Predict the 3D structure of the following.
Amino acid sequence: MRRFLPLALVTLALLTAAAAQAAPAKFVRYPHVQGNRLAFSYHGDLWVANVDGSNPVRLTAHVSRNTFPRFSPDGRWIAFTSNRMGNDDVWVIPSGGGEARQLTFLSTGDSVLYWTPDSKRILFSTSRGARAFGSPLYSVPVDGGLPEPLGVDVASSGMIRQDGGMLAFNRLGARYWRKGYKGNASDNIWTLDLKTKAFAQLTNTDLKAFREHRQNLYPMWGADGMIYFASERDGTFNIWKVAPGGGEPVQVTSHKKDGVQFPSISPDGKTIAFLSTRARPKDDDEDVKAGDEEEEKAQELAAREAKARRPALPAEEE
């Protein structure tokens, strides 16, 4: 019986299901996984399907742009970003379908990141802060109410650990389109202990080597206590991991021609979903592959990726 790593990888590879010899699915973005369910944005609307691509269900049908779906830890809700009122706001919808509710109303842009571990609040990035440039992360109650800032001066992305004790975050923001960038504008992984209020920078800590600093984006807490993130440390965006106490990051995926885009981690920290346009190997027939911990240690860079194949989306109306 195959044993699975604490963190299995799922790639939304923009490919057809093996049984359907059709064109690749296009315009699929921002995947998020919880258990056997995959949420994603397709042509600006939200969909949910099984991770094998079966049973696709459309959650929204709106002329606006609906993006960054995030399952709540209890599985009841999906938070998402929508500009249906003119600018990006935080919205929430039942994960099984239903009426969407608006949770933020300021005229600045708000973008959903993750949930608090108790499923009561939604963490989001925003430009509503008092500073001219940069803002703290905020959270808003799922039942409605005033958003509240977290205890950081500037942050653009982040996630609260599953036990609620620490925040991992970026300050500057993702510049994934600047492929190959090196320099002092590269973003880093930071942590904030939510009890002691102690900050720590985990990446690009050698200031003398700033010309070689690479981007480190989308911090995610794994079930093993490690912080997973996307980085171009090997020249292409791949998933890496680092201990919350610091140390040398370890590479997890090894894309060569095209890299990881828009990664997100499941609420339990066991599964990462991300986009990749890399071609699917002909000899890879498994949906989810991973070796056990001993195999990962032996191979070091060996988290073998899997493919959540394209849902059978209905034909578009003319």
Notes: Residues 37 and 50 are 5 Å apart (CA to CA). The first helix runs from residue 293 to 299.
